[in-house]
DNA sequence: TTAATGATTAGACAAATGTCTAAATAAAAT
DNA sequence: ATTTTATTTAGACATTTGTCTAATCATTAA
């Protein structure tokens, strides 16, 4: 829960998730879309992975990142308790 | 959007929201439930208010805080784009 | 009108965060 | 074999964050 909110609390990381909505992508392809360095994006991807929001598969020298939406259920569950 | 995720990215603030689910409460009554000082809780309430998650009404020397769930719609809207 | 109560503001400080460059690792290409 | 390409790790650094105590503001009670 903590890791999830932490991961979502950054505009760049949220933008990465939106990017991955269009399909999996390599770390490099993701990094190209942002004005930040590759290590910075790599770090963001790590936080997203820790929260379970993305998964990664190594393909040769590339690492492909894939959106994992099932984690959102956790968030929806938390929100649900506030339903009036 | 930023203020919303920021406000939610803290366990104490989330606990305050859950507390207010049971009904409005004064700043002091809220502070009593946590091990933190009154100024700290006041600061958390301020961040929640900035995000629109709570509203405050001054009643004499007290300040009553009320949960505002309508802001969650914004969050649900953001989540919706990821629906498969 | 003075003192007490409820709450916020101001300022300090340690810890966490987001960014960078340089270095390391791993795979592919020459 | 060597070099290039893709990515991560390590370490540094400025900014933000969460907390505190002390001081201030506002309202109520004596």
TrEMBL record, chains A, B:
Q: Where is the HTH arsR-type domain?
A: 1-84
Highest taxon of source: Bacteria
- Does Oxidoreductase show up as a keyword for this record? no
**What's this protein's name?**
Transcriptional regulator
Which ranges does the record mark as transmembrane?
Answer: none
Record keyword RNA-binding present: no
Matching Gene3D superfamilies: Winged helix-like DNA-binding domain superfamily/Winged helix DNA-binding domain
Q: Which UniProt keywords apply?
A: DNA-binding, Transcription, Transcription regulation
Which CDD domains does the UniProt record give? HTH_ARSR
Q: Please tell me the species this chain comes from.
A: Hymenobacter frigidus
């Amino acid at each position: 829960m903590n890791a999830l909110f932490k991961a979502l609390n950054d505009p760049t990381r949220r933008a990465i998730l939106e990017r991955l909505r269009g399909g999996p992508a390599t770390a490099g392809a993701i990094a190209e879309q942002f004005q930040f360095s590759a290590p910075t994006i790599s770090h963001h991807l790590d936080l997203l992975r820790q929260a379970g929001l993305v998964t990664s598969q190594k393909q040769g020298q590339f690492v492909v990142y894939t959106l994992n939406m099932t984690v959102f259920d956790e968030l929806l569950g938390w929100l649900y308790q506030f339903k009036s």
